[in-house]
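Researcher: Go.
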Amino acid sequence: MMTLELTYVPGQMRPRRGRRITAGKLTGQKPALKMNEVWAIRFRLQLARDIRELALFNLAIDSKLRGCDLVRLKVEDVAAAGEVKARAGIIQKKTGRPVHFEITEQTRASVAALIQKHDLSGPDFLFHSRLASSLRLSTRQYARLVQGWVKSIGLNPATYGTHSLRRTKAALIYRKTGNLRAVQLLLGHTKLESTVRYLGVEVDDALTISEQVDL
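Model: Structure:
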């Protein structure tokens, strides 16, 4: 869908950075979750004992995958010989390029619990849809789950989306290290410029990082 960046000027419309009108609706970048918000959602899912949603949320944060790739994950992508891997990799649907990601201990535990509960095997989709007509969770269903998660902790669901989860750990890594190249690899971006735009890196941030490197 074509998007235009517009701002109102009497008598005409001119482009302006950072604001979009898509099908008549103003939208913008979805913000990353803060650490306390991640833990709040995780706690609620643990309290509800929702094994599928807890595994989905944890893996979304760890993997930094686009929604279309996350919902297509199969057991064999993240587990081998009965054990959930510490590192995994897939071919991205959007770019056709490989991307690798880590799976932390708590995520491995939640994914293992999901596999055990539903007796899943290698070629099975990891996240099944609860609709009989679908073999796996759809991106639309995933987006609705994300909106439910953020709403459950008092956030505005219109402000956040699936890219909030994709961006969360990447933004944290960037803030801690300033290493854009590492974040680029983890997000599977082909160009560093894409990572800069995705994280919303400003010129001042880039200069601050540059000043810390003394050759």
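Model: The chain has two domains: 1-30, 31-215.
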